[in-house]
Amino acid sequence: MAVPKRKMSRSNTRARRSQWKTTAANTATCPQCKALKLQHTACPSCGAYNGRQYVEALRTEHEG
Ligand SMILES: [Zn+2]
Asked: 8 C-alpha vs ligand 1 centroid, how far in Å?
């Protein structure tokens, strides 16, 4: 495996790291209740995933 010959300067390290950026998480709409949810996760408002019921929904106060 290739090994760096010299220590990278702090300036170079910091210049490279200055380009690191975060991206917004991918969201999808639930096919059952149309709520916005994270992809590859059960829906937080109805608990459905892949056409099946997996978890009890998290009830919040405004949902009644
Ligand atoms: Zn849902």
From this structure: 49
